[in-house]
């Protein structure tokens, strides 16, 4: 007997965010522990799960700059300098690998960007504009952009706050680089919620704000409530077509 349209379970959808989280956490751990060459392996796998190896390259550059500035108090041996440069170049190469593979497989080096355009229903992928236009589409010509500016400003304030120091410079750099990546190239619609999972270091800032059991219970209740919103809103398919989660 055929199953009704849309009768699927959440566990049957194999998105790549779980593997991306594992690879990113491992790469950041190895970076902070200065196992630079070891970090090349999880970065390479990361690039095959989500296109975020290029933002990671920015984190490597920030790490190298910080170590160079502190080289008098924290010496930077030549071998570590070379390893850091290799990690940065490897991250860039990993970030370009998937678009190149798509281009070689299709015979069109611009195929990857064409796929991205088709996915979002637009003719071209234009950087830095999707958030602005989507905010106007969802909330109006004035309210949307104002809320967007406030959101970006709030994100910057959080990263610059004293409580954000609990993340350390590398995790803070990742949140800044990945936030900039999302703002530059991603169209913020239904998939943005799973994209935001890679900002998991911000959970440390949340933990730093929890001063009492009541605060913790409030965060847990809000998280559970948002899970219900997530499932009902995004995982409930409405025929004949619907937006992907």
Topology, please?
Elements: H1 17-32, H2 40-49, H3 53-69, H4 78-106, H5 111-120, H6 130-139, H7 143-160, H8 168-185, H9 192-195, H10 202-209, H11 213-234
The stretches of 5 or more residues where confidence is low (pLDDT under 50) are: 1-9
Estimated helix fraction: 55-70%
Distance between the termini: 27 Å
Q: Helix and strand string, N-terminal first?
A: HHHHHHHHHHH
Count of distinct structural domains: 3
Mean pLDDT: 88
**Helical segment tally?**
11
Class inferred from helices and paired strands: mainly alpha
Using the CA coordinates, give the radius of gyration: 20 Å
Biggest sheet descriptor: none
- How many beta-strand runs? 0
Estimated share of beta-strand residues? under 5%
Question: Can you summarize this structure?
Answer:
This protein is an all-alpha fold. It is built from eleven helices and no strands.
């Amino acid at each position: 007997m055929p199953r009704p349209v849309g009768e699927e379970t959440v566990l049957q959808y194999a998105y790549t965010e779980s593997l991306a989280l594992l690879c990113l956490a491992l790469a950041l751990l190895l970076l902070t522990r200065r196992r630079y060459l070891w970090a090349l392996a999880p970065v390479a796998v990361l690039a095959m799960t989500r296109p975020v190896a290029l933002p990671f390259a920015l984190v490597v550059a920030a790490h190298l700059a910080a170590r160079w500035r502190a080289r008098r108090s924290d010496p930077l041996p030549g071998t570590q300098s070379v390893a850091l440069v290799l990690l940065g170049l490897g991250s860039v190469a990993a970030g370009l690998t998937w678009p190149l593979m798509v281009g070689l497989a299709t015979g069109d080096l611009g195929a990857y960007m064409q796929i991205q355009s088709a996915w979002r229903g637009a003719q071209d992928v234009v950087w830095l504009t999707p958030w602005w236009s989507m905010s106007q589409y969802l909330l109006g010509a004035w309210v949307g952009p104002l809320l967007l500016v406030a959101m970006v400003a709030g994100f910057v304030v959080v990263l610059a706050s004293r409580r954000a120091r609990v993340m350390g410079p590398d995790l803070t750099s990742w949140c800044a680089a990945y936030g900039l990546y999302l703002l530059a190239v991603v169209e913020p619609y239904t998939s943005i919620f799973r994209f935001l999972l890679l900002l998991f270091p911000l959970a440390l800032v949340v933990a730093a704000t929890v001063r009492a059991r009541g605060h913790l219970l409030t965060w847990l209740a809000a998280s559970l409530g948002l899970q219900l919103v997530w499932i009902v809103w995004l995982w409930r398919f409405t025929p004949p077509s619907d937006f992907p989660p």
